[in-house]
Write a structure and sequence with these properties.
Layout: H1 5-9, E1 17-22, E2 27-32, E3 35-39, E4 44-49, H2 54-62, E5 64-69, H3 75-81, E6 95-97, E7 103-105, E8 110-122, E9 125-137
């Protein structure tokens, strides 16, 4: 048995992101910390998503998304998009449209516009492997790290 797994796993360095999704009609976004580059050629990113969430339905329907890198001053944004079941979750934030049609968070540091290559099972989540279609800097700043978010995601009780 692992003593204090929540604190130990938070020491694995990774950032905090908002994943923007659409099905062409509806849009949503969610906070993610399990994101990584998995290939140079083609440029691929992978992220973990809970298949029970509304965002997964939209992602499955369209197979497009954006990965928006949050800065250290974006704690409130991470917290907002980490909540489930909010009506009009996108309201109150500035959005742009990516080439794929997925929403880009205008306040992010960097965005990656992606098409899903494939999904794979990963325990209680799915892994979306995505080919990057476009990417750009939008704002200056330093990326937020997952361990800087404390218990925002409630992960301690999940272990």
């Amino acid at each position: 048995m692992i003593d204090n797994p929540a604190n130990l796993f938070k020491q694995i360095s990774h950032g905090v992101y908002v994943i923007g999704v659409t099905d062409g009609k509806r849009e949503n976004a969610f906070t993610a910390a399990w994101v990584m580059q998995v290939s140079f050629q083609p440029p691929l990113l992978a992220f973990s998503i809970n298949p029970a969430n509304f965002s997964y339905q939209l992602l499955q329907a369209s197979k497009v998304c954006t990965v928006n890198v949050l800065g250290q001053n974006h704690y409130a944004i991470a917290e907002h998009f980490g909540r489930s079941g909010l009506a009009d979750k996108m309201t109150g934030y500035s959005w742009q449209k990516a080439q794929t049609g997925a929403p880009i968070l205008a306040d992010c540091l960097v965005y990656f516009d992606c098409k899903v290559s494939h999904f794979t099972d990963a325990g209680d989540h799915k892994i979306a492997v995505c080919e990057v279609q476009d990417a750009a800097w939008l704002n200056a700043g330093r990326p937020m790290l997952y361990n800087q978010t404390g218990e925002m995601d409630g992960s301690e009780k999940l272990y």
